[in-house]
Amino acid sequence: MATNGPLHVIIAGGGIGGLALANGLHRAGVSVSVHERESQRTDRLQGFRIHINPNGSNALAELLSPPLYATFTACAGHGGNGFGFVTEQLTELLQIDPDEGEATASGHYGISRITLRQLLLADLDGVVHYGSMLERYERLPDGRILAHFSDGTTEIGDVLVGADGGTSRVRAQFLPHAKRIDTGIVTIAGKYGLTPQSRAELDARLLRNPLSVIPPSGCGMFLAPHEFDIPEGAEQIVGNQAGIPAGLLLDNTQPYVFWAFAAKRERYGADLESLSPVALHDMAVRMTTGWAPELRTLITESDPETATLLPIKTSVPIRAWETTNVTLLGDAIHSMTPFAGIGANTALRDALGLCRAITAAEQRERGLIEALHAYEADMIDYGFSAVSASLNAANQSVSDSRFARGAGKLALRTINAIPVMKRLMVADLGA
Q1: Domain that holds residue 121
Q2: E-only strand ranges, 75-179
């Protein structure tokens, strides 16, 4: 394998993990290119809040330039670092406040996915190629990788990284036995825009911090307020840019409350994929009939055009494979449900580990395959553990067992009533 000279890394996919890796390699002086399937940087935006935990924020702190990381922390939501569990009647089961443990606030950030993507792209001019989806790759006689792209171009690299999401073409060719399956769970998500008038109409408890809503059985809901300031000087990076469609869904300049209702597909009794955003919103309104009026206001008064269908899929864990100079990160290998809130953070952890491995090989501190093997061994372990944890959380959130749901509520009430147990839970959340 020809690795005597400087390395060149090809990253297929411009999601959070791939762009974070590109930032780290670019800063370390490693030649890197990112090939993104969409035709322009505004096409692939997702309009909802994302939670960055210490794994994610520590990775971003190392991979981004200091000014860009400072912009990230300044653009993240402020306040709301606690967390709560309530019933569908808004009865408190457990409330964790920031002052009950510094760990709950340290390293935790809420940020718009749109804003995070814009930040990750800010230092990558000339590195990211749009409308350039990887179609296939081949191995050259000298061991390097020749990548073929949808725009008709090709590129030769020493390392190919599949960061091309749950439908990864790199994974399909490299590990064709690695599968991704439908969990049967479907989520409808939406946004309640916060203006002075709408804020006054919303129950203050819904603005305090993220909440997990636990009905008697069969469904669940997560909601999170997202209030933030765009710091002076950052408007050109993270403000609404030309090419972004009008409307609250893709607006990352207005504060809002994000909500997501989840249930098994059959519970909806409709062909959800055929429904318009307005019809999806109507479905969420219908599915929450009988819930507390305060929660109903959040859902019914949300902008119907922000309603988005999110079918929940998960990868199937596989055994370790023989390491080559083709590797994977994020959803391309360990796609997981969003219910534990760890998917993007795991991808960022991947990006940090892979950046360190490739940089060590570039600097001749380790052999390339040795370094990539160490990354993969670690990633497979924590990555598929995260897949399992998120799938368990998803199944629990839509469980039909009233007994199990009742036992869970009793456990939460017990923790809420015993300070020592609550402090232990706070410590676990901050780990």
Answers
A1: 8-429
A2: 83-87, 92-96, 109-112, 128-130, 134-139, 145-149, 154-157, 159-162
